[in-house]
Amino acid sequence: MPNKVTQPAMPDQTLRVALFSGNYNYVTDGAAIALNHLVAHLERQGIESLVFSPTADPPAFEPAGTLVSVPSISFPGRSEYRVALGLPREQRRRLKAFRPTLIHLSAPDLLGYAARGIARKWGVPLVASFHTRYDTYFRYYHMAWLEGTVTRYLRHFYRPCEHVYVPSESTAQVLRAQHMARDVRIWSRGVDDIRFNPGRRDLEWRRALGLGDGETVVAFVGRLVLEKGIDSFARTVAGLRERGVAHRVLVVGDGPERARFRDLLPADAVFAGYLDGDDLARAYASSDVFLNPSVTETFGIVTLESMAAGLPSVCADATGSQSLVADGETGFLVRPGDDAGYVDAGGRLIGDPELRARMGAAAHERSRRYTWDAVIDALVEQYREVLDRRRIGAADGASDAAARRGMLVDDAALT
Question: Has this prediction a pTM greater than 0.70?
C-alpha cells in the first residue's frame, strides 16, 4: 500500500518537481529531448527535480538530472519501447522522501496513472504535458475503430490535471474541441540554433554518401515506424519519379520498419541510420527539401530543426506542423492523405532552386522565434501559477474553517 503524506494546511511553496515519463532517455524522440531540456533547465535554476521512468541498458543518451528507474517490460509489438506496470513500493518511498510540491505527468501510461492517483491522494498539484496524439496511432495499424475509445480514456486521464501543456496552438485547439482537459496551455519547443543552422552544409559528407553536388536531396528524419507517415513519404517519392522529377532520397533514423521502408523506396535512396548532435545538424543542412507527412506529432521538433537548418518543407496540414510552417512562405502544408498534393508541392520545390532558397531563408528566420530557455521559463511560470493557486485556496480554506470555529464559539456563548 502507498505511504500517505498529509498535506499541510499551507502548502510548501518551494518548487520541487516529480516528473513521470514513459521514455526519458532509452529512445531518442521529441518528447525525451524536450523533457531532458526541461530538467536541465530546472537544475540550472536551482529547482529540485526527480524523474521516474523505465530505463534500458545501454541508454540512448545520458539523462539530465536524477533518474529513478522503474521496473518495466517490453511493449508488445514494439520492443524498443518499455512500459512500467505501475509504481512499486521502493519508488514510492523515493517519491515520498523527495516531498514533491508538483507532479508532472508526460505519458498516459500505467506509470502515469499510478502517479496521478498518488497526487490526488497526497493532495499534490498535478499537471501534464501532451506529447503525442496516441489516439491517431491506431489508424496505421488497421485498428481505427479504437480511436474513440482511446480518446475517452485520454479525457479521463487528463481531467484531474490543473494544467495540460501542449506544444502548439493547433494541438491546443484539437484538445479543447475534444474537451480533453480543464485548462490547456502552451509549452512550446525550442531549437539549438548554434547547432542547427545552414552553415552546417557539407558537400564532402554528401559525396561520401554518393549524393552529387547538383542533385536535389529530399530528406526524411525520424523514427522508422508506420505512424511517422513512411507509407505516404514513399508514395510521394514514387509520384515524383512517375512525373520525371529528378531527386535523391536521404533517410535519417532507424526503427522496426527500416527494411520495409527500404523496399518501398528507390534503390538509390540513402539510409544514413540514426544520427544525433552535430551529425544530425549536418544531415539536415546538407539536404535540400524536408518532407514530413506525419499527422501524429503535437509539435514536430524535426520540422523545427529542418527550418533552423534552412530547409523549405512539405508537411501534413495537421497538428504540430500547422503551427510551424507558414504555408507558401516557408514551405507547403498538404491535406493528410492527399498524395497528389504532396507530389505537387515537392515537385515545385525540387524544380525551382530560387523558390527553395527563398523559402529556406524564411524558414531559418522563422525558427529563430524558438529558444529553449524562453519556452521553459514560460513553463516554470505556469508551474508557479499552479502553486500560487493552491496556496491561495488553502488560505481561503483555513479562513473558512476559522470562521466556522468562531461561529460555533458564538453559538456556544448564547446557550
Answer: yes
